[in-house]
UniProtKB/TrEMBL annotation:
SMART domains, per database record: DSPc (SM00195)
Keywords from the UniProt entry: Hydrolase, Protein phosphatase
Annotated ranges, domain Tyrosine-protein phosphatase: 44-201
UniProt region (Disordered), positions on chain: 196-216
Name the UniProt record assigns to this protein: Tyrosine specific protein phosphatases domain-containing protein
């Protein structure tokens, strides 16, 4: 069996900001999240299911790699950030793909611009990866973007729609119960409606959901 590392490849679709604007927004938003974490004790991650965790960008300077791997037992990760967001910056040092690989954590990349919706293709790849890891391999899996509020929430909600047979509303309500500060932008909500309608149509016609397409 081949290694699950990098089983789900990256794409850069859904980018809607210039590089300069993205950089400014990213650093301001990251600083805001760090302040909320330290001042209001907003959790960096939240368990949606026993083996499914939704959260913010893991930071090496906050010892998140060891906490996730050793304390939470994470064996797979879905990264919705663009590659530039994973680079060290003045505020923090994100855990790098190479560090995840060294820790033997399987990775799936769904590179999507901040405040943008992932494409349906990207959502499907990431959702199938989560299913393969959580349901088939029984691996604890961490799904994240920058703040664990938008891009990564889209993937988790879509997973619940397809593999837990939930409606969009029920899936989002469950996630919000577990992580109250999640928030979807209108375009993210619209893409989830498209995804939900796809599986609602399949269910009503009696057809089964597509099989997972992740590599093993």
């Amino acid at each position: 069996m081949s290694s699950p590392l990098f089983a789900c490849q990256s794409d850069d679709k859904g980018i809607e900001m210039t590089k300069r604007n993205r950089g400014v927004v990213f650093h301001v938003s990251l600083l805001y999240n760090l302040l909320l974490r330290h001042e209001q004790r907003r959790p960096w991650w939240s368990h949606i299911e026993s083996k499914l965790i939704l959260g913010a960008l893991p930071l090496q300077n906050e010892n998140h790699l060891d906490q996730l791997v050793q304390d939470e037992g994470v064996r797979a990760i879905v990264t919705m950030n663009q590659s530039v967001e994973l680079l060290p910056n003045l505020l923090a040092t994100p855990v790098s793909p190479e560090e995840w690989e060294s820790a033997q954590v399987g990775q799936c990349f769904g590179s999507t611009g901040d405040f943008s919706p992932p494409t349906l293709e990207t959502i499907q790849r990431c959702v199938d990866f989560v299913h393969e890891q959580v349901d088939v391999r029984q691996n604890s899996t961490y799904v994240h973007c920058k703040a664990g509020r938008g891009r990564s929430t889209v993937v988790v909600v879509a997973f619940l729609i397809q593999y837990r047979s939930m409606t969009l509303e029920a899936a989002f309500d469950l996630v919000k119960t577990k992580r109250p500060h999640v928030s979807l932008h209108p375009k993210q909500r619209r893409i989830l409606h498209e995804f939900s309608e796809k599986y609602s149509s399949s269910s009503s016609s009696g057809s089964s959901s597509p099989a997972a397409n992740t590599q093993s």
